[in-house]
Every structure is written in structure tokens, then in C-alpha cells.
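User: Predict the structure for this protein chain, please.
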Amino acid sequence: MSGQVPVHVVYILDQVRALESEMLLRIKQHGLDITPHILIDVANELARELQATPDLIVGNYRDGNLVASLLAHKLGVTQVCIYI
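Assistant: Here is the predicted structure, written as C-alpha cells:
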């Protein structure tokens, strides 16, 4: 099982990049002038990077939802799950 962890991490990172590209495209198509920040990090570094606590943490699939749930609990914010 431990040999699968690096493969899962690469897969998740690829999915995050694809999600970010799709989000940026849709934001642009809707004429919005915002830039979402997708971070893969730990709670303290996340808060430091954002210079604030996020309002919402989104999880994707089982592993992503677990991480999102743990981060949301630690930061005291709302967590949502995406099931596609």
C-alpha cells in the first residue's frame, strides 16, 4: 500500500491543476475579476499564505475529503465534499 501513496499524491496534484485550470477558464468566461487560490499545505502554512483563515475548504474524493475535513475541523471552518 505504501508504494501507492506517491502515485496517489501525483494523481491528486494533477487533479488540482486540472481543477484550477477549469475554474480559471469559467471565471474568465463569466467576466469575473478574481483569482482563486488552491493550496496543498498544512493548516498553519495555509493561514500564513492566505494571511487569513479560509471561509470554506473543498474536498474531492475520499482522500481529499479526509484532508479537507481534518483541516476544516482544525481551522473551525466549513468543509464541503465534491463527488463526481
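Strands lie at 56-60, 78-82.
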